[in-house]
UniProtKB/TrEMBL annotation:
Pathway: Cofactor biosynthesis; 7,8-dihydroneopterin triphosphate biosynthesis; 7,8-dihydroneopterin triphosphate from GTP: step 1/1. Homopolymer. NCBIfam families: folE (TIGR00063), PRK09347.1-2 (NF006825), PRK09347.1-3 (NF006826). The lineage of its organism: Bacteria, Pseudomonadati, Pseudomonadota, Betaproteobacteria, Burkholderiales. Keywords: GTP-binding, Hydrolase, Metal-binding, Nucleotide-binding, One-carbon metabolism, Zinc. GO terms for molecular function: GTP binding; GTP cyclohydrolase I activity; zinc ion binding. This is GTP cyclohydrolase 1.
Amino acid sequence: MSDKEAFTEHDWRRLLSSLGENPDRPGLHETPARVAKAWKHWTSGYDQDPVEVLKAFEDGAEEYNELIVVRNIPVYSHCEHHLAPFFGKATVGYLPSGKIVGLSKLTRLVDIFSKRLQVQERLTIQIANALMEVLEPKAVGVVIKCRHLCMESRGIRAIGEETITSAMLGELQPNLGLRTEFLALARD
């Protein structure tokens, strides 16, 4: 990003002023720097490559032919429509076809795509597609359950409502038994 495009502390100061605040008052004096640093972290997924994270290894995997599922993966993201946070949990699973990935890599994959401006539906399919493309498993399943502050704090004010999205790829689409097993494992 060039310096002309970068959103700077000066811009955050202008935002505070436009809201009717004094960016120089003691409580807000350091806020522009903190907010700039926070947004850099919240959008750090753009600088990360999911393929790099999903380095697969084959030793031991060729014999394993059951689902591998990681539940309760934290999701913290921002909606692209209002820049409001949404948060919840993801379940990610796959049925290997000779390749496995370290379990923490599934959490990292969710984190990479979450740290981009998102809609939950796209987030869900991006995670599933990345796993499918890199690991080439027999099946991939992703279920994400989130609360959206754009719904809770404005507009309809649907406090506590959760949005659930899922992506079922490969054998999880036609195989009802496998799909049922994955969804049972995904349930809290």
